Amino acid sequence: MREFDAIIIGSGQAGPSLAVRLAQTGRRVALVEREALGGTCVNTGCTPTKTMVASAAAAQIARRAAEYGVVLPGGGDPGGVRVDFARVMARKDAVVAESRQGLTAWLQGTGGLEVIMGHARFTAPHTVEVAGEKLAAPWIMLNVGGRPALPPVPGLEGVPVLTSTSIQALRTLPAHLLVLGGSYIGLEFAQMFRRFGSRVTVLEAAPHLLPREDADISAAIADFLRAEGVEILTGATGLAAAPAPEGVRLSHAGGEHLGSHLLVATGRRPNTDELGLDAAGVALDARGYVVVDDGLATNVPGIWALGDCNGRGAFTHTAWDDYEILAANLLDGAKRSLKDRVMAYALFTDPPLGRVGLTEAAARAEGHRVRVGLRPMRRVARAREKGETAGLMKIVVDAASDAILGAAILGPGGDEAIHTVVALMKARAPATLLREMMPIHPTVAELLPTLVTELGPADAPDPVDEAVDESFPASDPPSHTPESRIGRPGR
Fold it and tell me: Is 257 a catalytic residue?
């Protein structure tokens, strides 16, 4: 039996930073990892996928070069831009390797911290076994993450299936990629592979893409994906899979689709099923997530769960926030809580979607009387200047308290501009304060005060219908002028 002060199982976003922080206090710490250091984000999530997104964006800009007055070498046809898929994937691998090497060097260079490679399994509440060796500690932190989950589609077990992890091992571009699941992961891969040169078809069982988002946001995303040639089928029920000469046949109530490859992107599951948590007495919910309180503690004293495995957030930034909450509470005498978290996230399509707080539909479902501000990106000066006018901006405000309930920015830089609203919501600032800001011109974020100025009446079904919106042609005063901030008749 080897004794430590703390054992951290899993090296995703929360684990390494917590391990180093604990070791810097003089504690003896073990960080256990069964696969690659860095977890999902570094190895199969954010780092590789956003590297691939960047390559796809470069290809798209090259195809649109003529729109910007740029002539390709030799006067080449932008429509003939070719992507070297093997080089795209090699670049992705290099970026991942660099990130993993940096993390490895940091951990190995921290005194008092031992990295142990192997699968950990509990044998008692504060004892785990790794590669035949028993380790014990009064503090144990679970940071084991999650993995892609396959839905119960008949025939799926009999066809070659790609997940968000295995698709990154491809070196040959799919001729026709079928994407089962029209949510965040599926849509990012759909757009990037279309830009790489694949034919792409997305099938989603819900009535519209991204079922958690408002219908107007989902419709705008579907519009720009279809404009790039992505085929989209919503309401796809009665699914079944079967082998086909082309590769895979995916049938549904309305017909069938044949593809060379099938990517299943319908959700993830926590990596808690092989930890022996029953031996520790740690409680799981019905979906297999570790049950934690608002301080990340499990039902067993001295055991905490951070990151994807606790079901309280499925993002790298929520895992990092878990680390900060637990470290502050354990080491700094703080009393931070998950209740204080303002949830924000992004969809990294091009343009990206930045989201914070409640959607309009969710706010209404919770009983709020809301006022909504909305502006299409074609009425944002920066978007027109960049030639990227797909999307819209939207803010949801409580009519009684003037509290900002949520916002969405779908457009150029939306994943960055949304942080203005994130900060204000964290500070519990009223929408009035946003209206009084003096933002920088020309930016996308400068239109956030305009959204508040143009809030519709309480409980109006939609602040801007298409007929009214079309009354603002491109020849109108630029979106940053006082005239546009005052609003117009019918708004």
Answer: no
